[in-house]
Amino acid sequence: MINNEVIAKAYSSINYVVAVTLFCIGLYALIIKPNLIKKFMGLNIIETSVFLFIISSGYVKGGVAPIYTHDTPVNALFVNPIPQALILTAIVVAVSVTALALSLIIKLYDQCGTLNANKLKELR
Amino acid sequence: MRILDLLLLLFLIITALGVVRTKDLLGASIIFSAYSLIMAIIWQRLGAPDIALTEAAIGAGVTTILFLVTIGRTVRREDE
Amino acid sequence: MKKLFTYFILFLLWLLMVSAVLALPPIGSETTPVTTHVIPRYLTEGVEEAGAENIVTAVILNYRGYDTMGEVTVIFCALIAVLAVIGREDVKLHTSKVDLVGIKESVIVRSVVRFLAPFIMLFAVYIMLHGKESPGGGFQAGAILGASIIIYTMTFSYDLTLKKFFVKARTFMESAGPIAFFACGVIALFYGQNFLTYMIPAFPFATQEAMRNLMIEVIEVGIGIGGGTVISSIFLAMEKVEK
Fold first, then answer.
1. How much of chain C exceeds pLDDT 90, in percent?
2. Which string of b and e fits C65-88 if b means at least 16 CB within 10 Å?
3. Do B46 and A56 touch (CB under 8 A)?
4. How many whole angstroms separate alpha carbon C168 and alpha carbon C166?
5. Rounded-to-integer distance, Cα B64 and Cα B34, Å
6. B19 touches chain A (CB under 8 A)
7. Count of CB contacts below 8 A, A vs B?
8. Contacts with B71 (C-beta within 8 Å, 6 or more apart), sequence order
9. Burial C233-242 (b: 16+ CB within 10 A, else e)
10. Nearest to B69 among C54, C140, C235 (CB)
11. Is residue C131 within 8 Å of C141, Cβ to Cβ?
12. Which site among A123, B49, C47, C147 is 20 to 30 Å from C123 CA-CA?
């Protein structure tokens, strides 16, 4: 099943494989770790892995950043601007989601005195 | 330069594992900051300076600070 | 046992996703579906049509203006939700001389931050105003502005920040992003154009392109000030001490 062709394909799109791996690492933290702050660190890792995937899909080999300057050649090769525009706003939304979650966590700790999800389940 | 890209991706996975495996939440936040910085460098290499700027300011700066503030107001060890 | 099961499931998921990802076109090829449909038009005509040399800014503020307007509103709503959950800082509680978060001991940190903080803010203003023709723009400027206020608060004191950057001023600045966007979008409606097209007729003193560029600049400044204030407000609300 794993032959040279697959390895060469994985090498040529190594960013995708790394993004998938990071997604699994983040999901592991989200599932296994009982601490709520650690769960949200895992969620942040998942978010950045998806960003990495989308930005990599817009990359063009040999392309430069999509900005016209006075010395840009006529038919210059640019990378894809759409994924960048998509992710630029998504990063800012991600940080506001994190801020909201963390403020909820602070309030939860004030009320319950623990951040362990297993203990929180017993408190009810 | 291909080797630099591969090294950065390797460091990315190592720091992500570090974030997940570290029991001390303060240390995990700092490693998360390093993770975000490496991600910013990768995006600069992929031709996205806008995203790199945002990630370096938000991922490495603001998100880490928000985690630190939360840890300061709650617990520092993971198993409490 | 539960852990082993989770590892197994995650490994299966990883295999599934890797096999899916390897079926995609390789990174960097020019013929992937991602780069074929509207991208050539954006890249070749973006400067004339959208009025920004930085195509990412052109896409964010002009071609996909609706999307960005929604995102700006989302950030504002996140601030409202945070303030509803933990509440804004109380000015009366912080009139004492007690230094809440300031780092007293480190002279180096204090001197470096005192020297650097104005330059960080200047850099934020620079990329806010030059988002059209260089990397940068409203969101980046907002992030850097918020980070500079956060670094100032962490190094000096909470009270000092509240004194210089007080709540009454922040309340208006937080909503700058959505307000700038809606205002510039609605102006086109009065001239019979579509929402957020920035197409208003030429004035005696300015061409149509100049008015469009001016509106894009206004939106950048609005997003920058609004984003920076939202980030610093969230930080100040989370950092406050409950009495």
1. 4
2. beebbebbebbbebbebbbebbee
3. yes
4. 6
5. 10
6. yes
7. 123
8. A37, B25, B26, B29
9. bbbbbbbbee
10. C235
11. yes
12. C47
Is the Cβ of B80 closer than 8 Å to some Cβ of chain A? yes
Q: Is the pLDDT of residue A22 over 80?
A: yes
Q: What's the pLDDT score for residue C96?
A: 47
Instruction: List the single best residue of B46, B68, B71 to mutate versus A (max A Cβ within 10 A).
Output: B46
A84 contacts B48? CB cut-off 8 A? yes
Q: Which residue has the tokens 């990495």?
A: A52
CA distance B80 to C23: 44
B58: nearest Cα among C80, C236, C122, A87: A87
**Nearest CB to C39 within list A82, A90, A95:** A82
A115 pLDDT band, cuts 50/70/90, is: confident
ipTM value: 0.90
Residues of chain C with pLDDT under 70: 30, 91-105, 241-243
Can you give the pTM of this predicted structure?
Answer: 0.90
